[in-house]
Fold each of these.
Amino acid sequence: MKSKTTKKLKLGIFLFLLFTLPIGAIAQVTVYICGSATATLQPDFKTYTLVNGDKVVWNEKAPDGNTVATTYTFGTDPSVNFTTANNLNDGAYTYTVHVTPADETKCPGDVSTEYVVYKLPASVALASPVASFCSDAGTASSSVITATPSSSVADITPTYTWSATLNGSPVASIATLGSSSANVFTVKPDVTAGAYIFRVTASYDTGAVPVKAAGPCVIESTIPITVTSKPGKPTVTVL
């Protein structure tokens, strides 16, 4: 019967983004990505040195629970690092890695700690039940615009920035058109008549957790709102 070593392989993962993270920076397992950005995961097997033929096995668990294993052979494949796809769906992807030595007398390595790469929402949608109304200070008629990201992110609330154009020209102060509260903008009932395009930009503050971005890490959307003029109060002339 073949003997097996009792030494356990200590596994860890270094996550590299556009820059190299120091060892202390990976204590937090979550890294955010947005757009078409990718993250590359590099395993560190500590006291064990890979030899030709060793199998490095990565497991990726998607937000829907589906798990896919990817195996690299040291000495055959160009690298044993794992790079995420550039078109991930919104949500948390969990990664682990372990090694199976080519030498069958050696124990398979322990599975690493789970590391999470979180894909931030890819889009935000704007909706309003009222797309057109008559400007009238004496009524409550107006549009209430709601912004909804393509997914929610636990523990992170987006910051929404609102702007608008009127008949193609930028509105200097959005406050003249109404008020906003988080992801909702309420248009005043007596704004100037015309064709408006309201725009929202949503951004995420991930604090100390790094973000990998292929470009500006913001999402935005627009919605048209038409405001018509109220007919003037008539006068009567006796003919």
Amino acid sequence: MTTFNLNSPGTLPAYWDASATLPFQQVEIPSPLHSPTRWLSPTERATVKISAPTPDEVRPGFSILHEAAVRLSTFQTRGILPYASGHWVADALQRVFWSSHPGRHARRGWSLLAVLDESELGVEIWISGETLDPAGPFRRMRLRARIAELETAPFRRPR
């Protein structure tokens, strides 16, 4: 029988033990009503690719962003993240941090993913952004770059 030392470096209990002694960091996540992620097109949502560092590479911290980064790194380590849809990841994060009905819109989860992509925790979220030219190809870009475009767009689509 194999036994594991749960407090060895690189494990989740070791990460949580190290983070528990740090001060709580308040993070502002935009309300789903005010988040630009609600203007993402279905194609942009469907083409999300997320990469996360390994759990031992995530900088220790005590905030919702650090917890989300560790959860994504666990998905990455278990081989789930490369095959997971953006909606599934957003829904999984929303169910952890807020009450929600599974399979719904996951708007808070999308807001969290956008803030996580802007953070410096090693999580990268890539999408295929809509074209500027109707006949042109989709643009591979970071979610944070697309959010910046949507925030400054003169016309915002209602959802």
Amino acid sequence: MFFAIFECHDSNTMLKNIFIIILILTSIFYKSQNLEDLDRVTENYIDKAKYREAIDFNIENLLKFKGSKNKEGIIMVYINIAKLFCVLNEYKESSKYFEEAKTNIKNVKNPLLAGKLYLEYGISK
């Protein structure tokens, strides 16, 4: 079924189809790379005990992810911010962000992200 897109009668149609596939694959890679970068930078802030800077960084990314409707990115930011507020002993604020992440995770089928949410949630309690 996948290879049916290559069964084109002219080279222009085939090139268009290949271009579309490349765009889709690039989009998928870019999305996962953004999440890895977000996690890496957040952990760097944590390692340096710059928790407020980490929160600010994640809030900036939250706005970007909301603008691009990247649900996984939004959830990842909520998890990170919740963890950071927990480290700062601001449990009420932490709980608010964990609840946002739990609400939004229902709309995403990503078991690794769900695992991260419940791991961080469990550690914080």
Amino acid sequence: MWTDRQPAYHNRLHIERVPAQTIALLVDYGVPPAALGVDRLFEQRYLQWSGTGPVCLNGAASANVSRPGLERALFGLAESCGVKFCIGAVPYAAIADPARLLFDATGRAGVTAARRWRPANPVVSRTFQFTASPAPHHATLALAAGSEGYAYRLGNRHGLCLGVVGGRDLIRGQWPEIRERIVRFAPWIVSGLPGADGQAGRAGACSLQWADAGPRAILIGDAAIARDALSSQGLAMGLGAALHAVSKAVIGSTPGPQRNGPVQRAEHARRVLAMISAAAFGSQPLWKEYGGFLQKAAMKLA
């Protein structure tokens, strides 16, 4: 297996939300929840979306996973099963060799894709990390919409992640500046967070996109369809797609794209469009343009 890097213990903290079933699946494969920073499940979330002040909503149990810990655990699990890793670019000979079954899990880059479908102006997110173990009410997923975008917060035993999503005017600058912008529409979501020492984490596009596979590789996870961050589904769906594809290959069946992929994509686009339409920022030009893209995605079933 080729990869551009090995998971490292010094990788910056990044936390993502997954269904409780994903944790159970990882436990079945020998990955302990503690390695992922998981010490509890959450059945509630706090939401400030179309009104003022947060409301507490109940839902299905979920867990907040440290992404670096998950990558290290899966890397070690693969090595224990005999997988050999090569660090660096995939050689052209390996891509061109028809005898090789090629999986493309290169994320949104989708390096082998024949065509990518994405907004002309993608919605962008930035995250800031705090390594102090948060109180339970701070670790619970929280979402708050403002006039230009939204902020979210979640944590686990490894720390806390605060993200901000929207256009340039909302996400530019350092943590103290961004914190002040968030305070204007949702002071409760940054309550208790330091004003000066948020460590910059991951940043990049977080809007819906998908790709058509090329002639050689099978697209996996975000390379096939990168879901909008509002859904909190990307990591769990990517793991499921990878397991499905590899399981098919192990039994000698050539894996291909999921038959219901276009339907899932259309349903996802409709759900995200409904959330944006109900939000305070829904009338902003960036979000209206993205809403038009989602409308087309909701009707594209092939």
